[in-house]
Design a protein that fits this description.
Strands 3-2-4-5-1-6-7 form a 7-stranded mixed beta sheet, sandwiched between helices. The relative contact order is 0.23. The chain has a single domain, classed as Rossmann fold (3-Layer(aba) Sandwich), CATH 3.40.50. It starts with 13 loop residues before the first strand and ends in a 13-residue tail after the last strand. The protein is built from 6 helices and 7 strands. The chain is an alpha/beta fold.
Length: 190
Amino acid sequence: MALPTIKSPSAATSSISGALTTNSSAEFAFSSWGVDDESQYCVLFGHDEANDRVLQILRKTGRDLDRIIREGRLVILRRESSAPATVANIDAAFSRAVGKGAMAIRYLGNLGMGQAPLPGRGADEVVELESGATLLADRYPSVIVCMYDINTVSGRLVQDGGFGTHPLSVCRGALRQNPYCTAGDTTNAA
């Protein structure tokens, strides 16, 4: 699955879901635009293997990721806490970015089964996390992209956590209103 071109999220905020297998080019493109533009900040969230894969891809391009991480323009959050604690960590990362002058925040969430099991209550915890992250899109100049590795998570989790909580989705390379979103009034402009 290719992500549509979302180079300047400052014009609108959105929460997007995508169900896909590991897609290095999508992860790279979405993250690299944020690291290249000093007015944008990135938050990378997921299990260790997914986060390491994105960082490895970005490092191969010669970018000084250590500097970007020290500056706080790239924040890496691990999947290890309860949904409320994780949403609070994401909120804090977004707040710090805005406090440092971020014009836009790119959040890339990778959900798949790494070596560690899903934290907390498993699938129910993921749905709560996804709902909370989606609500952050209304409060910050952000584009939140949550990708699901359909090879390692259940169909129920993709349906309820991915499509059930995000008002927009990527389908056939285009950004679309998500007809499967069951979350409250979280309609965002794209």
